[in-house]
Amino acid sequence: MSLRHENRRRLTATDLDVLVVGGGINGASAAAALAARGVGTALAEARDFAGFTSQNSSNLIWGGFKYLESLEGGLVHRLCSGRNRLMRAYPSSVKESRFLATLTEGGGPSRSVLWLGAWIYWCLGGGFTQGPTLLSSTQIRDAEPVVRSVGSLGGVEYSDAVVTTGDARFVFNLIRGAMDNGCIAVNYLEVTDIKRQSGRWLVYLRDNHDGGEFQTRARVLVNAAGPFADQFSQMAGVSTRHHHVLSKGIHLVVDRLTDSGRILAFMTDDRRPFFVVPMGGRSCIGTTDTRVTDPHSQITDEDRNFVLDNANRCLDLPRLLTSRDVIAERCGVRPLAVTKGHDTHRDFLKLSRQHVVETTAERSVVTILGGKLTDCIRVGEEVRDAVLGLGVLDPQRLRPWYGEPDSDVKSRCFSRLSELGDRAPAITAAQRDRFWAWYGERTLELVDQVNDDPASATSIFPNSDIIWAELDLMQRTEMIVSIDDFLRRRTLLAQTTDARDLAVAVENAELDRLFLS
Ligand SMILES: Cc1cc2nc3c(=O)[nH]c(=O)nc-3n(C[C@H](O)[C@H](O)[C@H](O)COP(=O)(O)OP(=O)(O)OC[C@H]3O[C@@H](n4cnc5c(N)ncnc54)[C@H](O)[C@@H]3O)c2cc1C
Questions:
Q1: CATH label, 3-53+167-241+351-388, candidates 3.50.50.60, 1.10.10.10, 3.90.580.10, 3.40.50.300
Q2: pLDDT tens track for 358-383
Q3: What residues are in contact with ligand 1 under a 6 Å CB criterion?
Q4: Which residues on adjacent β-strands are paired with residue 365?
């Protein structure tokens, strides 16, 4: 029986303490924090894990330099400390990166205000990263020739962090860790209805993969439905003090625009931040910030042109970028937590990126509104405390719930990889690092697989560094249901490979057949 079927069987056969609804970053953190504590926890996700907003972020782990403009020093301080905790906990996948913020003529702060802001930002971040540097336009031209120097007023280089595994794998790894601590997680399992019965929740579930219908019971529900959280609150008969306003953001993935590894930051024409972020050997450019009401948003020509125009305005490229250069697109809606009754039309672009955890004790529901990847540790802790406050049995187990395994495990993994020697001569140092960042302790299973079958150390596609043994590991331990789960979320292949080349490679490797479950 596959892991997914086994988990679905257990989920419907168990009287749960807590059911987390939603497997984006908020649900993943909540489930991981609760499971590590020993609380009987399950997680149901209607799509694939991280299959909605959390696969469409800018992959930045950052304090939000821009939020200083709206004088949100407290939020920036909290986000910076969230960033610092993630950088400490995930040295292999949340990495400090230099951001180059360039000023151009025609608006924006002066260079001295930007410089002062960068120091305040650095101080609010506890001086955890490398300090900022002031750069003239000539220095920027020398360091980053791709930045357009005409009209440049110089800028500032400062530090934040990037999640190098990609957002979706980061979320999945939290869920994988939650499962290792006893959480029963199932993807493609939607909560379709809930009823209060004798002080517990009777939960109706539909398997969106095979259409099966199930029920389970839970004492407490955690609403981590992201952009659907208000809908879920309605279903649960819960009235929260905050609700969501949705903001659409898009990114376009194009060929690599700079080799420096820096994140290039600019201001768009309408004074929103605009980034060029490295992603798996490509560059991801964006984003937009458009108010929408439907969580199921699409990229329009206007969105696409806005991003391309801004890239062409800020960068000095051999030729203008057009939609033909786009390798992949990302589109998501930010669920922004807003106090009900607040007039959001006047100051939409300045709405806070804070998260809120609300408890409705009489209905035994904990609701998460807003949030960011950056703040996920705090969200997990707050949800765990809120759930325990509802009187759920607290086993007081003190296992870590986030972060890479300790250095002993890491040494064991790397020495086992080295011992492979001639059995896997083609495995590079970069691949070893990636195995650790993606699979943590499961790297040992990968080594066993290669030892048993040295041919599994070869690449699945000619231009990919992913090996067959990884595919086997993912199939056994990562609940891949469709090929898209593999190409889009467990790996970055769908975002970094030309669609036609990828289709041919998938066909040649007969991957479709492998993922038919
Ligand atoms: C363009 C963009 C860029 C961003 N960039 C950054 C960034 O660089 N750094 C950062 O920290 N943050 C960033 N964010 C913010 C961050 O990505 C989001 O706040 C976060 O991903 C939202 O996570 P979530 O878990 O609340 O929602 P989601 O990821 O949407 O998860 C909610 C899940 O609930 C599931 N669900 C809903 N209803 C049900 C149901 N009835 N049954 C079962 N499952 C259900 C959905 O399928 C969905 O997967 C960005 C956001 C956007 C849109």
A1: 3.50.50.60
A2: 999 999 999 999 999 999 999 999 99
A3: 21-27, 44-47, 51-54, 56-60, 190-191, 224-228, 232, 249, 287, 332-335, 371-374
A4: 221, 360
